[in-house]
């Protein structure tokens, strides 16, 4: 049995696979996210407790020996721990917006662009650089008490194994030089954090491997740390050839394209994620909000999630003129541009507007945001899609039409699957990657609807440009 652990923002999962990649069982536990005035924090003990709980439940259900485990999880944020790996304060989530003023300052004074030109990482409020700088100004005692500023999966890895480390994928945002695959101390200096440099965990390249200490998994189980959830999903979906892409329709709407070219001259946005293969990167455009935008609309209208497919069938493309700019995050947007003050817009609504119109317009808006991101990321090959949104066949047909291309639908626990494949590569275990990443279905676009949405996409970009001008004042 091979076990993949995926420590998500709202749900922690563990999945068991056999040698051929067949998913045997999944266990999941929800975890809290405390939202308050643009701040987003998580209880580390709750998150780690959920990891142990899902592993205990999974190994009880599938009592086969665990040959190997792989770990992945949400990226960015700041997870401050002491030398024993215990929390110093609650974790600051990647969704946290408290550092937006700092990012705005760095946009204005050139720091933002200088960092991008060195690392390929476009700073956004919820990434470690701005959050650490904010803490240094407002909560220096927390940094003084900490031994490490970790990423989520690295906190779990240290608790499971006692090893303090991160990998090149998590370190890519925002301190890693993608050419040397080591921290760029000039970037640390630019962000005013040289005196906090000791907090950055060692970058293991290749990813760290260790043996568990007996919580959740039997003591001595081999486990690998990383990559984090975006590149883990790319591995789990079989996206490794240059030009091929992955769209993750989850809480975050993440667009990734595999590449062997490192171009740090374009518009500063998104990031280059280093992979376990030197000279290979994922050009990532992780928009802040994906299914979370639809969740908000459903909650606001009182429509249950189970009704989405039926509602999409009740209103035509264009949603009777209702349009949504789906930038709902309190920290603004980070891809394929950075605009900390951008907010969602809902237009074309009248007394005749129905819940079906609102749902379709939101799904269309998310699709247009994805198309924008994928184009900026350089998609030229096939496109795989995974995430919670794939559970809606109607939304996937709509998405194929909006994107104007076929979708390879990858189901199951794709991040956990990728974590196992990464661990297997690190431990020298030979698994058939093609069998492990075979798509469940191919969704083709309708030519007439695709042509309609091509025009609508230009309108989306025009309205987005106007919205960006307004927030810039």
Automatic annotation (TrEMBL):
<dbReference type="InterPro" id="IPR043129">
    <property type="entry name" value="ATPase_NBD"/>
</dbReference>
<dbReference type="Pfam" id="PF00370">
    <property type="entry name" value="FGGY_N"/>
</dbReference>
<dbReference type="InterPro" id="IPR018484">
    <property type="entry name" value="FGGY_N"/>
</dbReference>
<keyword id="KW-0418">Kinase</keyword>
<keyword id="KW-0808">Transferase</keyword>
<protein>
    <submittedName>
        <fullName>Carbohydrate kinase</fullName>
    </submittedName>
</protein>
<dbReference type="InterPro" id="IPR000577">
    <property type="entry name" value="Carb_kinase_FGGY"/>
</dbReference>
<dbReference type="GO" id="GO:0005975">
    <property type="term" value="P:carbohydrate metabolic process"/>
</dbReference>
<feature type="domain" description="Carbohydrate kinase FGGY N-terminal">
    <location>
        <begin position="1"/>
        <end position="236"/>
    </location>
</feature>
<feature type="domain" description="Carbohydrate kinase FGGY C-terminal">
    <location>
        <begin position="269"/>
        <end position="424"/>
    </location>
</feature>
<comment type="similarity">
    <text>Belongs to the FGGY kinase family.</text>
</comment>
<dbReference type="Pfam" id="PF02782">
    <property type="entry name" value="FGGY_C"/>
</dbReference>
<dbReference type="GO" id="GO:0016301">
    <property type="term" value="F:kinase activity"/>
</dbReference>
<dbReference type="InterPro" id="IPR050406">
    <property type="entry name" value="FGGY_Carb_Kinase"/>
</dbReference>
<dbReference type="InterPro" id="IPR018485">
    <property type="entry name" value="FGGY_C"/>
</dbReference>
